[in-house]
Structure formats: C-alpha cells, structure tokens
Design a protein that fits this description.
Blueprint (H helix, E strand, L loop, with lengths): L1 H29 E3 L6 E3 L2 H7 L2 H35 L4 H9 L6 H12 L9 H28 L1 H10 L4 H12 L1 H16 L3 H6 L7 H8 L4 H38 L1
Length: about 270
C-alpha cells in the first residue's frame, strides 16, 4: 500500500514538473502585466491577432505541408520496399532493417549540415532548399515509419496472409496492396501521426536547410522571441496544442488497434 502511494506521488510530481512550464507560459500569454506575484489584466488579443494574421497562418500552413509531404513520400517508398521484401526477397529484411535504423544514430544538426554541404552547390532540382528539406525529413522519419509498418506486418502474419490470397487466385501485388495493407492501416496511421508530430516541432533542421527560404511556424516563433514575449508565448501554446492533438490521435488509433487485436485473440 505504501509503495503504491509512493509511486502515485512520484507520478504526480513528475506530471506537475512537466505541465507547470506550459501552464505558466499560457498565463503569461493571456495577462497584460505580470510585475508582482499575481498577474493582472486578462486578454486573449494575442491569440486573436495570431489566428487572423497571415504572417502566422501562412508559416503554420507551411509547417503542416512540410510535415505531411515527407511522411507521405517516405510511406510510399517503404510500402513498395516492404512489398519486394515480403513477396520476392525475404533475405533482404535484415539489410533493410539495418539501413532504416541508421538515422537513429544521426543527430539532426549533423544530418542537416551534411545534406546542405553536399547538394547546395549542385545545379537543378536537388539544390532547391525545399526539395532538400523534404528528403532530409524523409531520412528523419524513416525508422519510425519502417518500424511501425514492420510490426504491423508481423502482427497480421503477412507471409501466410499472402499465401492464402495467392491460393485464391490473387496476384502478389494485388494481394499485398489490397489485402495486407488494408489490414495494417491502423498501424500505419499510428506511425504516420507520430512522424508528423515529430516533424511539426522541428526547428534545427529546417532553420539550417531552409531558413528564410521556407519560413515555418517554428522559424516564426524564433523571430517573435525578439519582438514580443507574450506573443511568442501564445505561439508556443498553439503549437503545443496542435502537437498534443496529433499525439493523442496516434494514441487513440493505437489503443483502438490493441482492442481489436485482443478481441480477435479472444475469439
């Protein structure tokens, strides 16, 4: 009993430690002055100004686009690669796993500087900063998407499901993308949501690779730090709220997937 209370107390203290900075940031963004212990003058003008200001909405839209596009592109390549591995070349599974886990060991700043120094002087499309940013983000989310899809394929026992579909007359390509992939949509959705939330909060890579070429909400926040502390606090709260929604969406999909799997096992 004492141990349970101690564990609960530790969890409560950790939660307060993590939530308190965000709460204080929110309070700072809605009060007009905070010169004493208690603040004074409640206002939501900074939120109203941000949500009606095109200089914030456009970077916010760019952030969403640059978070979704690399994930979608990387997802297509991974599904095609997994099709080849599952159907034609199973021995490549370990090689692919090794390649896809390498980005775990590469820090964002090292990856960004390497890509910039390698492609910035080349002629053509590869030297475009936005293109470099998209493919850099593809490398960042590669291990997260791969591991999620790999675990989902193992859960549904993809090789046996593929054999059963082929016995019924389905081609390998049709069996993989019309039978196996629909059965792992929930797992793919979790990986996609987590990857988008990861890219949504990035500042280091986009500031190095794109910078002023492609201003996002994180770059906008960095510039607001030198202009208005309360307005930058409002930006932090908005970005955190969006990231929280994405993470909760991924958690909801994961829990629903776990319930369905448990229900199938009970049957």
């Amino acid at each position: 009993m004492k141990k349970t209370r101690l564990n609960s107390a530790v969890i409560v203290v950790i939660c307060i430690y993590l939530i308190l900075p965000l709460v204080l940031t929110f309070f700072y963004s809605i009060f007009t002055e905070w010169q004493h212990v208690l603040p004074g003058g409640v206002t939501f003008r900074y939120y109203a100004a941000l949500l009606t200001d095109s200089s914030f909405l456009l970077p916010f839209l760019r952030t969403f686009i640059i978070s979704v596009a690399p994930v979608a592109l990387c997802l297509v390549f991974i599904l095609l690669a997994m099709y080849v591995v599952v159907v034609h070349l199973p021995w490549l599974d370990r090689v692919m796993q090794l390649v896809c886990t390498i980005p775990y060991a590469i820090q964002g700043i090292i990856l960004a500087i390497s890509v910039l120094s390698l492609y910035s002087g080349l002629p053509g499309l590869l030297s475009n900063r936005v293109v470099m940013l998209v493919f850099t983000y593809c490398i960042v989310v590669l291990p997260y998407l791969y591991q999620g899809i790999k675990n989902s394929l193992n859960t549904v026992n993809a090789p046996r499901l593929l054999e059963a579909a082929q016995l019924l007359g389905a081609g390998s390509f049709t069996a993989f993308f019309r039978i196996i992939v629909p059965n792992i949509v929930s797992g793919i959705s979790v990986s996609v949501m987590l990857s988008i939330s990861l890219l949504f909060g990035d500042f280091v890579i986009i500031n190095i690779v794109a910078g002023s070429y492609y201003q996002t909400a994180q770059v906008f926040l960095y510039r607001q730090l030198f202009e208005s502390g309360q307005k930058s606090s409002a930006v932090v709260v908005i970005l955190f709220a969006v990231t929280l929604l994405l993470t909760n969406g991924a958690l909801f999909l994961y829990n629903r997937r776990a319930k369905k799997r448990n229900a199938r096992e009970e049957v």
